[in-house]
Each structure stands twice: as C-alpha cells, then as structure tokens.
Design goal:
Layout (H helix, E strand, L loop, with lengths): L1 H21 L10 E7 L2 E6 L4 E4 L7 E4 L3 E9 L2 E8 L3 E7 L7 E4 L11 E6 L2 E8 L3 E7 L7 E4 L17 E4 L2 E7 L5 E4 L1
Antiparallel strand pairs: 1-2, 2-3, 3-4, 5-6, 6-7, 7-8, 9-10, 10-11, 11-12, 13-14, 14-15
C-alpha cells in the first residue's frame, strides 16, 4: 500500500509539474521588459528599447503600442486608464495616458512646455482625483492634481514660492490618506520638510 501511495504521489507531482511547465510561454523576442502595470485583463510593458508594449497574455495579443516613447518607471491606474511619466525627444518627460490601445496611448499634458521635462512623479489617487508632483520652469517641483482631463490638470499650490521645489526626492513616502484628508510631505522654504494636508 505504501509503495502504491508513493507511486501515485510521484505521478501526481509529475503531472502537476508538466502542467505548470506547459503554462510558461515566451510571448515575444528581444523586448527586455523593464516595468509593467495591469489594466483590466491587459498589461502595459516598458522595454529597454524606448518602446511601450501591451499584452493580454497571448502571443497574438502582445504587440508594440509605441516605439517613440519610454516611461519613467512610474505609473498608476486612474479612471480606467494608465497615467505615467513618458519620455520623448520632443517633449522630455511629461504626463502620458494609455487605455492599452495604440490610438489611446498619447501625451496627456505637456506640463513644462517644449522639450523641458516636468518629470511627473509619486502618483496617488484620492477622492477620485490623481495627485502627483511635477516641475515647471517658473515654480519648481510642486503638487499637482488631475480630474482626468487636460484642462483639469493643474498645480494645487506653489508651496515653495517661486522657482524652488517643495518636493524632496530623498523622502520615501509622500501621501497619507486619513479621515477624508490627504496628508503629504513638503518644504515651504521656511519650515523644512513638514506635514501638509
């Protein structure tokens, strides 16, 4: 009986191992995936070749969306779309949006116009708004928000008045929701890095 049970366990283990191995499949060649984020049943993939891909987990559903933009590695899902920092030669690092289609993967807003970059970072969704920090030539790195429209993507406040930056990239956490409020760390040039709401 013990021999039978051992044999049955070995056969079961073999079948499970074979089944797991059969599910691992290469979907494309030479893409060198660097980062990814899921949206529904698809995933946006960034490669080291300055391109954005999408996959639904099948070979036919894995293809390049854009070959002229790389991401900054930061992204968030907001209102059924992916918002991310996207980098191009013409616009620098700016706010991009994607719905996982070729036509729906595009520059969302050129916050720091021209080739200068706004480097959007630390995306956080709160109270149906998207919050992040971005830099402009006149205001430095400051807190921004978006309601999902280009017109509704605006700076919340120039905390470090003028060209200085309220954002400190050496801090590890920025946003803390509590009691219906959003708390964050910022520097107003007078008090150093402190808690704001």
């Amino acid at each position: 009986m013990k021999t039978f049970l051992r044999s049955a366990a070995c056969i079961l283990l073999f079948l499970i191992t074979e089944n797991i191995g059969a599910q691992v499949t290469k979907l494309s060649n030479n893409t060198n995936i660097m980062a990814s984020i899921t949206l529904g049943n698809k995933a946006l993939l960034e490669t080291d070749k300055d391109s954005i891909w999408v996959t639904d987990g099948t070979a036919a559903g894995t293809f390049k969306l854009r070959n002229d933009v790389a991401t900054t590695g930061e992204a968030v899902v907001y209102k059924n779309k992916v918002y991310a920092g996207g980098v191009t030669a013409a616009k620098g690092a700016e706010l991009w949006v994607s719905d996982c289609t070729t036509s729906g993967t595009k520059l969302f807003k050129d916050i720091n116009p021209g080739a200068a970059s706004s480097f959007p970072t630390n995306f956080f969704v709160f109270n149906n708004l998207l919050f992040f920090f971005a830099v402009t030539k006149g205001n430095g790195y400051e807190l921004w928000k978006s309601d999902g429209t280009a017109a509704g993507t605006v700076m919340v406040k120039d905390i470090y008045v003028g060209k200085g930056s309220s954002y400190d990239s050496t801090l590890s956490n920025f946003f803390y929701p509590a009691n219906g409020l959003l708390f964050f760390e910022a520097n107003d040039s007078t008090h150093g890095n402190e808690l704001w709401k």
